[in-house]
What we know:
By secondary structure, this protein is of the alpha+beta class. 26% of the residues lie in helices and 42% in strands. It has one domain. The longest helix is centred in the middle third of the chain and has 15 residues.
Amino acid sequence: MQLVTQEVVFTFANDKYKDGLKKQTYANVKLDVTSAQLQEVGSALARLRGDQLNGVGLLQHQMIPMTPALAE
């Protein structure tokens, strides 16, 4: 399978949000991003928002190669 796109989902914590949490998704994440880079960006966003970073998720979209017999 070939990795084609990625999205990151940051979960922010703050009493101002319903249930204390808010998820924010960002698309078009570089394919070679590291977990440390994602955490660094999430932490920076949390500071700007006045929140705490509660979690980071990475969603990957992959292309599945088709076999010729099944593609017809």
